[in-house]
Write a structure and sequence with these properties.
Helix content is 64%, strand content 0%. It has helices spanning 2-5, 10-21, 23-31, 35-59, 69-81, 83-95, 100-111, 127-152, 183-212, 216-228, 244-255, 280-303, 313-331, 341-348, 354-363, 376-394, 404-437, 442-453, 459-462, 475-490, 492-497, 501-505. The protein has 22 helices and no strands. The protein is globular. α3 (23-31) packs antiparallel against α8, α8 runs antiparallel to α9 and α8 runs parallel beside α10.
């Protein structure tokens, strides 16, 4: 049965899953006696299922071998750009006080795990609508988790192009580990492998946050947002939660999964020596997580060297913790802010260290995780190439000592990583110019561009001197934001791969 369903286009399967998921908030609203919202989700789910079955019946008469990898890539693009049109219907009907464009932009932000919300006052949305936002963001994280191995890896995209021998957007010529399975079978196997891990980690974090003191709805949405790195919160951030520092510590541990896929899998290993301590992505990530807060922490004594001040140990530890948590949060593109981040800023003497958070979000997390940004593996490839070039400046006739895999990353991998970095920078520049032409000032435009392309929506509230009110943006600006979020989630190389003539010839 499942194999038969997977022979249909992936976007049709995802639409059916979305329609079924709408009955969960419908039941939640019904239990809370919010009948208007309950009807909105129930009717939307019924209509969606009817549409999916009609299209499925129309396509069932043809013999289908299943979609190809490029067709799944197109379906993935449609899932981030077109599917939110359907996801926004119950949200728009349930809220009743906003435009459909606002609802669509909100759903694009959720499904791409960006987490930039147009509704700054969480009280405007009921618990059911917050639950739907969290569910969409959580499902978007699972989708990119599965598609990274099932769709992007066979096409050497999404960071896999750094270590692969084939060109980005093309399958490997040699027989690889995915060659024997069809695209549909691969999606099925990887979903069965990763979904239980994803659900189990979410459930464990939910229980721990409940024990910490958060109410069930807040704990559930924060747990889903942490695993999906979406930063969605029904109370405007974990700093407003009742679990306090205990909840932050638990969330911190689960955000480490966004630094490297090797925390739960070994299919993206980039070194001959196994183990998380030998993974370059995790090591670079931890270097940033510990190094940046220590620099901010040490700046306190540099700025007050001539002042006789008795240090407060408790305040110092709070400042250090606020820096470590917030740095990991924005490096993983989650965007949660620690309750002690204000203490950390005051301790370091930096009023609004927005550039630090923008830079961390640009770097991003690990390959094949739910994090966005440039990705740590590409940064590592550029680092290896730069170190080798400096060695050749000192010893022009020297020979590299790396293995064949290391030479691949240092040469072709670094070349492709540099191309991606240039495309990423051009995308940021293009979105910045477009938003500036549509009325945003320079600071607002650059923050919005980086927040959307790096899928770190909370940057709009903490990176600038004043929070950016997304609701007041013009209609064209919201459309540009939506396009930038899709571009940042799927990445530029994957968008370029969609222009492959083989896809449209079929």
């Amino acid at each position: 049965m499942i194999a038969r369903i997977l022979t249909f286009p992936l976007i049709l399967v995802l639409t059916g899953i979305a329609a079924l998921a709408m009955f969960i908030p419908a039941l939640h609203a019904l239990v809370n006696e919010d009948h208007s919202v309950s009807r909105s989700f129930a009717y939307s789910g019924i209509l969606g299922m009817a549409l999916v079955m009609v299209v499925g019946l129309a396509m069932s008469g043809r013999q289908r071998a299943g979609p190809s990898d490029l067709q799944n890539l197109l379906s993935l693009f449609m899932a981030f750009s077109a599917l939110p049109l359907f996801l926004a219907v119950p949200f728009y009907e349930g809220l009743e006080t906003t435009s459909f464009l606002n609802a669509y932009t909100e759903m694009v932000s959720c499904v791409t795990t960006t987490g930039a919300t147009l509704f700054e006052d969480p009280r405007r949305l009921g618990d059911t609508l917050h639950l739907w936002r969290g569910m969409v963001g959580w499902a978007g994280g699972l989708l990119i988790w599965v598609s990274a191995s099932a769709v992007l890896a066979p096409l050497n995209l999404g960071g896999f192009e750094v270590t692969a021998t084939a060109e980005p957007g093309q399958g490997a010529d040699a027989t690889g580990r995915f060659e024997r399975a069809t695209a549909a079978r691969r999606i099925q196997l990887i979903t069965l492998q990763l979904a239980p891990i994803y659900i189990g980690l979410t459930g464990a974090l939910w229980l721990l946050l409940l024990i910490g003191g958060d109410r069930p709805m807040v704990a559930l949405i924060h747990a889903m947002s942490t695993l999906a790195t979406s930063g969605i919160s029904p109370i405007n951030g974990v700093q407003n939660g009742t679990s306090g520092m205990t909840g932050e510590m638990v969330i911190f541990l689960f955000m480490l999964f966004a630094l490297s896929r090797l925390t739960f899998s070994s299919d993206t290993i980039t070194t001959a020596r196994p183990g998380l301590n030998n993974d370059p992505e995790f090591r670079i990530g931890m270097l940033l997580v510990l190094g940046v807060p220590l620099l901010l922490f040490g700046r306190h004594w540099l700025g007050a060297a001539d002042v006789n001040q008795v240090p407060d140990v408790q305040v110092a530890l709070r400042a250090l913790w606020g820096g470590i948590f917030t740095v990991l949060s924005f490096l993983s593109t989650t965007g949660f802010e620690s309750a002690d981040w204000e203490v950390s800023r005051n301790w370091s003497g930096l009023g609004t260290p927005g550039l630090i958070l923008l830079g961390l979000s640009l770097v991003g997390g690990g390959v094949a995780t739910t994090a966005g940004g440039v990705k740590l593996l590409r940064v590592y490839a550029l680092y290896l190439n730069g170190r080798r070039e400096m060695e050749r400046l000192v010893h022009p006739s020297s020979v590299g000592r790396s293995s064949a895999g290391g030479r691949r990353i240092r040469r072709q991998g670094a070349f492709i990583a540099w191309i991606f970095f240039m495309l990423f920078a051009l995308s940021v520049a293009l979105v910045t110019v477009a938003l500036a032409l549509l009325g945003a000032d320079f600071q607002e435009a650059i923050v919005l561009a980086i927040a959307t392309i790096s899928t770190t929506g909370p940057l709009t509230q903490v990176a600038a001197e004043d929070p950016i009110n997304l609701l007041q943006l013009s209609t064209p600006a919201k459309l540009v934001m939506s396009a930038a979020m899709v571009l940042g989630r799927l990445e530029t190389l994957a968008i370029i791969a969609l222009f492959n003539p083989g896809l449209w010839r079929d």
